[in-house]
Design a protein that fits this description.
Number of strands: 27
Structural class: alpha/beta
Strand content: 15-25%
Largest sheet: 7 strands, mixed, barrel
Oligomer: single chain
Number of helices: 22
Distance between the termini: 39 Å
């Protein structure tokens, strides 16, 4: 078997490993972060269990660390106290970014990892089957429940050669995105193999698997080999290593080849990660801001190489340049080897070890500015400046842009710095975490502290026999979760208060949406959203489904859905339907009423008739499994779990 199937087969609790069929997987490890964690923990608490049931669960604080007013600070206190109560490890604000921290301290080859963050596949660089999901799915995994997905196809990515010159791992995944697009990985796991694998360090591999999320992939994974062992030895946990390779002659569903020797510095243009061109083609384009870091490129090697580019030089006076290390461990290594001094003396601003500018949490560019970032997403408005243009690049390309104030041709950069793994001394990272008491009785005595912004979950109604909804929003292709529910300090601080955060749904796409939806809800009707291709791509934030459900959205009718958002809609009892004839999308106007008679005749994976006022009958379909359809009918996963408990 290939690596992905080996891990799946050893964790399979339900279903068959046939692409397209539903499977249930036992989850070894989970992670949540503060933007998703408060709601995930509230959902776990609602299950009524005494402790997490996983091998390891970690609760990180890395997204909203600004603590502006009481809300964020209260949320962080809640996360600390509820982690201690139920047996999870807690990572305090400033310790680092969840994916970098988990790679350094907890990820293990051959384990399954489910995270309430779409970039959880970062740990695939370690040989973990790491997947992003909505917070409710992670809460259920913490409770020992299987995680259900459609069995993916496994794509063999055969790597040959080695990176040369200024090319970096970021350029590898940008190259693949340019070939396959942001929809090219849907329903797939990308498994990297071939002689080129051995030339890449674990942090480089993690950069590639991290941005597999931008392909829409379920997961991406590398083998566990001697380089993996060396990485774990540097982290002080060589005992966590085990070899993991595909069998000789292993079969794959699809194959592609990438010659690392042919990779050149690349850049993703606004506003999608697949709009890839060469850096050389943008030579002369002025740059207003450079931001280095994020879970994709905040490792020691990434920032050390940027420091080498800038050593003894100054960043361009008109280019605001900032840097956020991925962890305290990374920051310590940069300080010890002189890289931090190089960065600071060159004029780089040092930010906290957190996500920061990647999610618009500070560090926003100037109006209509061009921002060059080592991040993973460049969606419109995600930076915090709506009319900014964000370009995604590698750390050394970012450093060159900071140095010159504009894009330059890599042919003019001279000799590239060496790609290090680690300095001679690597400080331990596990000392920064808070570990729960081992004694269950002691944990039971822990008090969970809640602030006034933490609002209890509401219980949603079941799917009615006859449904009638009014179209309150119509959006096009490629709508992201940032379009549905924007990030940023003001909005993210409301993640534990669904009534409050719901007022921001589609606020930057259609400011009148919530008002229209309120009127429809007052009439006793459900709301319907009409959408295009790949609806809900991007972040795993379940609030992009939970908040619309609170507003009364009952159906989302789209040309196609992104994997995690589709799962989140199901989790909260919103019926995800697909146009049988895509041409019907253009025919349905805003304000039309859509009705489905006798929802009990809807079958899993089947077609049904929907009546559209002023248009007549159209055919729509679903791609739900029988289990998923049952969950939607019951009003969502929490209702289904509670109902099972009642039985």
């Amino acid at each position: 078997m290939n690596i992905a199937r080996k891990i799946i087969s050893s964790h399979l609790v339900e279903g068959r490993m046939v692409p397209g069929e539903e499977i249930g997987l036992r989850i070894d490890q989970t992670l949540v972060q503060d933007a998703t964690g408060t709601m995930a923990w509230l959902q776990f608490e609602a299950l009524g269990l005494d402790s997490v049931k996983t091998e390891l669960s970690v609760s990180y604080v890395d997204h909203n660390t600004l603590q502006m007013g009481f809300r964020n600070a209260d949320d962080h206190r809640f996360l600390r106290t509820i982690s201690g109560r139920y047996g999870a490890v807690f990572s305090m604000p400033g310790t680092g970014i969840c994916h970098q921290l988990h790679l350094e301290n907890f990820a293990r080859p051959g384990r399954t990892l489910l995270g309430a963050d779409s970039h959880t596949p970062n740990c695939g660089g370690m040989g973990s089957l790491a997947m992003g999901a909505g917070g409710l799915s992670v809460a259920l995994a913490m409770a020992g429940e299987p995680y259900f997905i459609t069995m993916p196809k496994v794509v063999k990515v055969w790597l040959t050669g080695r990176l040369t010159g200024w090319a970096q791992a970021k350029d590898v995944i940008l190259h693949i995105l340019g070939r396959l697009t942001v929809k090219g990985g849907v329903g797939r796991i990308f498994e990297y193999c071939g002689p080129g694998v051995a030339t890449l360090s674990v942090p480089e591999r993690a950069t590639i698997t991290n941005m597999g999320a931008e392909l829409g992939a379920t997961a991406s994974i590398f083998p566990s080999d001697e380089r993996t062992r060396d990485f774990l030895a540097k982290m002080g946990r060589v005992e966590d290593w085990e070899p993991l390779q595909a069998d000789e002659g292993a079969e794959y569903d699809e194959e592609m080849e990438v010659d690392l020797s042919s990779i050149v510095p690349l850049v993703a243009r606004p506003h999608m990660p697949d709009r890839v061109v060469t850096v050389a083609s943008l030579a002369g384009l002025k740059v207003n801001q450079v931001a280095m870091g994020s879970c994709t490129n905040s490792s020691y090697a990434d920032l050390h190489m940027a420091a080498e580019v800038l050593r003894g030089k100054k960043v361009y006076r008109c280019t605001d340049t900032c840097m956020a290390p991925g962890s305290r461990q990374v920051l310590s290594m940069l300080a010890e080897d002189g890289s931090l001094v190089s960065l600071l003396e060159s004029g780089v601003r040092l930010l906290e070890c957190s996500c920061g500018p990647c999610i618009g949490m500070g560090g926003s560019p100037v109006s209509a500015g061009i921002s060059v970032r080592t991040f993973n997403r460049n969606f419109e408005g995600r930076s915090g400046t709506r009319d900014a243009k964000v370009y995604l690049v590698s750390p050394v390309t970012a450093a060159q842009c900071a140095l010159h104030g504009f894009f330059t041709d890599p042919a003019e950069w001279g000799e590239a710095p060496e790609r290090p793994d680690f300095p001679e001394h690597v400080p331990g990272g596990r000392k920064y975490f808070l570990y729960p008491p081992e004694d269950p009785e002691v944990r039971r005595g822990k008090q969970i502290q809640r602030g006034p912004n933490i609002v209890a979950l509401e219980q949603f109604w079941e799917l009615p026999e006859d449904m009638t909804g009014k179209v309150t929003l119509k959006v096009g292709d490629g709508v992201t979760t940032d379009h549905i529910l924007p990030s940023g300090a003001e909005i993210t601080s409301l993640r534990s208060n669904i009534p409050a955060i719901s007022r921001y749904v589609f606020s930057r796409t259609d400011p009148d949406f919530v008002t229209r939806q309120d009127r429809v809800k007052e009439l006793g009707l459900g709301g319907v959203i009409i959408a295009g291709e790949n609806h809900g791509q991007g972040s795993s934030r379940e609030h992009a489904a939970l908040a619309p459900r609170h507003l009364g959205i009952s159906i989302v009718l789209a040309k196609s859905f992104a994997r995690i958002h589709r799962a989140n809609l199901i989790n909260f009892g919103i019926l995800p339907l697909i146009f049988t004839d895509a041409a019907d999308y253009d025919r349905i106007p805003l304000g039309a009423e859509i009705s489905i008679e006798d929802t009990f005749q809807i079958t899993a994976g089947g077609e049904t008739v929907a009546h559209v006022s002023g248009l007549g009958d159209i055919r729509v379909r679903n791609d739900l499994s029988a289990k998923e359809l049952s969950v939607v009918r019951m009003g969502g996963t929490l209702n289904a779990v509670r109902g099972r408990g009642d039985d």
